[in-house]
Amino acid sequence: MKQRIQPKPPVVRLPPKSNFELMLARGSQTAVIGLGILGLVFALEAGQFLLAPVALAIIIGLMLGPVASLLERRGLAPALSAAIVVLLFVLLVGALTLALVAPLGYWAGRLPQIWQQLQEQLVHLRRPLEMLKGVREQIRAVTGGEGMTVSVEDGSPVVSLATLAPAIGAQILVFLASLYFFIATRDQTRVAILRLCVNRKLRWRVAHIFRDVEELVSRYLLSITAINLGLAAAVTLALWLVGVPQPALWGALAGILNFVIYIGPAIMAALLFGVGLATYDSFTGAVMPPLIYLALNLVEGQFVTPTVIGRAMTLNPFVVFLALAFWLWIWGPVGGFIAIPALLIAFAVARNILPGMDWNGIR
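User: That's the sequence. What structure does it adopt?
Assistant: Structure tokens below.
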């Protein structure tokens, strides 16, 4: 008996979506992405106490990873090489801190003198300020306003050192523990993540993301560290030649603050202006140390850094500014340090996930 062939069901063709429906679909997708980004921002801000030291440990671990790999190639176990690297890092930071504490304490005691000399120099600006005051009075007379009064209430809560110290100590412990375990288990973490990839193509892309992240971040931080050491030496020598007291202190601070681009040099120039006020009697002498530093910083930023790290790692200044502003807003000084490495990590991830796009716009 022949089997009866069932007729195929009719093909139902849906009418094409209208432009309004397409706009709604894309708008909903954009809204979901926007809500996800907004949730991520709030999560980063709310989890600052834990996430900031962990993120800093990962960035430092990417920089120190090649050192640990060098020790492991000599036969040391990953746990032992990670312990040695973390110990050397702690000793280096501790020695630098001890070297800076005494000179900074000396200059902190001279702040009243610097403030008095700054007021004396501002006497020359009294006439322009009086002219501005006259303009303000005229505007007030025209508008009939009484001006804006800002009052500060007494007894505002101030966090005491006894309350702040345990929190800082806990964050330091979280940072050191995260740094050790990240360096010690970096290979196992990579292998575990690659095993989660469901197909060969995804595994290939994730492997390239790991490779690019380690290469970009470690190369950037090691290169910037070497450049900042050179900048510290140049600033020390230049300030010593013009007679600024304790030039090694200001050279070391210049190297440290240069890790936070834009903001660090501005703070350093302001510090050197105060040092100039305390060292020289004239306004011309006071502006000489910050001008010397800014000139050296300009040479470093425009010639030395692009030559050392290469044009391939040179990022768009506007994108760098946005990343720096965002991370400073979220995590403060720690965010300022990790802003550029985080941008490099995002660039490495995006470049491998979307290989067909032209990423020269942020470079």
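The radius of gyration is 28 Å.
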